[in-house]
Structures
1.
Amino acid sequence: MKRSFFRPAFRALTLIYAAAGLFACQELSIDTQNSSPVRMQTDALPEYTLLAASPRTIIFNISSNTPWTITSDSQWCTPTPAMSAASSLVAEISVETEDNTTEKERTATLTIKAEGIETPTVITIRQDAKGVLSIQPVEGTLPTQGGSSPFTVTSNKPWTVSSDKIWLTFDKSEGEGSGEMETIQAVAEPNNGARRSAMITVSNGLDTREFEVIQDGIVLMFKELSDPDNDVLFPGTGGTKSFGVEANIDWKVTCDDPNVVIEKSSDGEFSVTMPIGKYFSTMQTSIRLEPADAALSDIEAQVLNLKQSGIAYADGSGVTFNEDGSVTLHAVNDKSRVCTNRENRLGTYIWTFSEVNIENAYFDINAWPNAGNLNFHLYVGSTNEMTSGGSTSPDNTDFWAPAAAITPALTTDDLNAMKTMKLVIKPNESDASKLVIELWINDTLVMTANDRINPWTEERTTPGMPYYFGFTGGTGSMTITSFETYPIE
């Protein structure tokens, strides 16, 4: 709120008139015998100009030795008080005004009349029209080679236009605001890089409008990705997924994991094949989409994060899955082991250890299909043998019996020095109905059996076996860094 006040000279004059009024007036009557002339003065300006929205309150003063009134010819402009009081002919006038919600300027007239004074005092109050600002943005995208594209501005006030990027300018940056539609040309420089954008701002002092313009350039991006963080999850069993590319240049895709296979199937698509996982917790790698032309190295590569779930879940207490993908097992006279999330049949299976501390426990590989009664235990530790737990269907032929002993027997020191363990289950080359079982520790063959029944032939439809492995009892600890599977299909 802005206020207007007496000037010092006017204040002095007011005191003189007020003093004169005390002697000259009684109950709004002027003593006709008094020789003082009838007078009324105000410090109001002849004219005021207000904004359309949130206008200021106008303050001025009236000093008189005769009764007076002040009136307004417009409802939106109200002076208070409207007349002199019986006790005083001097008053501060407050003029309240409403917002102008119309699109036209308006005027109010205040008239001050005093008894005995022939000519009234007139005050004019002008109020701006409501601001009108509308735009019609640039249509489509600006061409890569640069050039101009039009947009329009309609305003009843002077306006300005600006851009937040130096590569985008205008054929004119301001206008008078006649209320008529005006056309402006947005001028873009040639773009030798990636697609880019700029924000255009139009303002007329009362209102502001913004819109974005995009200029084509080199387009290189993944498309139709559901995850805003560009994360794609593969199961621990691996698999293949396809991805789309939006580009107007030749491109290539690379991965920082050499085991991930990438194949470009067309100009707009490629596939990613994730191998069977070997880690126990979720791991991440990434692929990069970038220009095939090394001369376009300034174009930012697009990154797609690939995550793969862990290959096993905990069975028993004392199981800790580590961030590096390893698992640590702590046995305290109870089972502490994991079970793989996929079926295992013929193939090679490799465990890698970073630390082994077997006290009086043993490492147990427990193959259990959860269907029928086909199972076996391979104990590496106190028993040093592979034992049978059932038979095959449909002929009830013993699967693993008789037990195959590890020769020579392993000592505790041998087990604690174990870095790798490899189990090979493959068909006998001379008789496919039989299996060859081999156990390798630190690249040394410690057990073999050549005449076990093969449950996975055309005649036998035995399901695959999830492998439980770890401690089934005793005390000890170990950290398994990975479990690799290479199945024979």
2.
Amino acid sequence: MRWTIAAACLAVSSAASAQEETPAPEPQNVLVEIYRIAPGKHREFLEAIASYDEANRLAGLPPRQLYVHQDGAGWDFMLIQPAHTPDDKREALNAAWDRLGLPSGPDFFFTFRSMIAEHSDTFASGPTSAAAYLARAKDD
């Protein structure tokens, strides 16, 4: 039994050392969107997001990360996605959007906003850790 515990401790210690030696990936710039949905429009909103994610898939881009409210604050959905479309994917995304018949311009605004009671957008950088972020800071 003692050897099993010692072996487990050594394995955990080795794994922790390996993680410390592996540099964290560079944080990415993302867009965080928080939505409170108009009454009765939750399914329609998710169907719209699913269609936008399908356009992303067709263009070779990842889907948005979706978080669904469970308890607490007054939001319904949070989306996290890259802050910008890569230049080499922009044309493919526009073509996928057209292929799926998704609204654009003022039609997008009117259609999408009809589902939303309130929203906020913010640009962020991450994921990271406090230690990694501090390591990037300039010493004064």
3.
Amino acid sequence: MKSDNNEEGKRETEHSHLVQAGLPISFVIIYVLDQIFLISVGLNNYISLILRIILFSIVLFLALILMKLSHDALFHGNRPSNTLITDGILSHVRNPLYLGVLLIYVAFLFLSISLICVGFFIIIVAIYNNMVNHEEKVLESLFGDDYLAYKKRVPKWIPKFSKK
């Protein structure tokens, strides 16, 4: 029993929960400070607030849809944890939950175009990509050729909705 728990823990990068909690906190602090001190939000003067609110709403809505579809694919149906899940939204993109999280950041970037936050977002994307790379190596070792075939068929980040 204990080996199962250890195996589960190895599926994610070390301290990934702390990283995933710390990144949005850091982003919000930087975002709010930039709004207060107006350090890098000059582009807001050239793009209407209405357009920024519309873009924010659309991207946030898409992010929440992706996260809901990801949750449904992963946690509905009482599948065993040692099953490779490739249906639902996971047949279009390999990391819909992480993509949804990243889209929430993008939504806030649209709401107020903070160049400092854009730079921090690039770092956030690199961190998430590193976490995904680690998790995919674990999945390759668990599922072998089945996962390699899935990787060839389904994109890592940008959803593909065409049927082949």
